[in-house]
Amino acid sequence: MPYRKPPSNYEIIWETVSRIPKGKVATYGQIAELCGLPRQARLVGYALHNLPRGSDVPWQRVINAQGGISLSDLDGMYEEQIRLLKKEGIKFIRGKVNLYRYGWRYGWMKKSSAMLIK
DNA sequence: CTGGTGACCATTA
DNA sequence: TTAATGGCCACCA
């Protein structure tokens, strides 16, 4: 039987992020869940931070559970992510995205206080 | 093996 | 409303 190397967690995460439709966003924790890696939100951030150069993974569609950007603004990536999302039609209110409107599959997810936009 | 780290998260005050 | 806190655990040196 041909041996096939199981995909690394990074690859699983990248694959899942690639399934987020344009115009939608997902949270780090949500991606971890979908990957079968519950409570591994930080690993998702780690995986995206280490994306291969020139990758077509839509990393900008992953945001934190508060609807905000988790990147540092020191290297300009914070503004870059917002720019890319706005280009996809996502609106920011006071620096936050409304997850009820733009969250991927949120209609099927349990309501949680952390998802509310205050 | 071991210990530090992190593009996180939920809870609490 | 924000801020602090403790939990989380794969990854890497």
Give the SSE layout.
Blueprint: H1 9-17, E1 26-27, H2 28-34, H3 41-49, E2 62-63, H4 77-87, H5 99-102
Parallel strand pairs: 1-2
Helix pairs in contact: 1-3, 2-3
The chain binds a DNA duplex (13 and 13 nucleotides) through helix 2, helix 3, strand 2 and helix 4.
Word description of this protein:
By secondary structure, this protein is mostly helical. It has a single domain (9-115), classed as Winged helix-like DNA-binding domain superfamily/Winged helix DNA-binding domain (Arc Repressor Mutant, subunit A). It has 5 helices and 2 strands; from the N terminus they run H-E-H-H-E-H-H. The chain has helices at residues 9-17, 28-34, 41-49, 77-87, 99-102, and strands spanning 26-27, 62-63. Strands 1-2 form a two-stranded parallel ribbon. The longest helix has 11 residues, at 77-87. The chain starts with 8 loop residues before the first helix and ends in a 16-residue tail after the last helix. It binds a DNA duplex (13 and 13 nucleotides) through residues 9-10, 27-29, 32, 37, 39-50, 59, 62-66, 69-72, 77-78, 81, 112-114, 118.
Could you name the key traits of this structure?
mainly alpha, Arc Repressor Mutant, subunit A, disordered C terminus, 34% helix, two-stranded parallel ribbon, DNA-binding, 3% strand, 2 strands, 118 residues
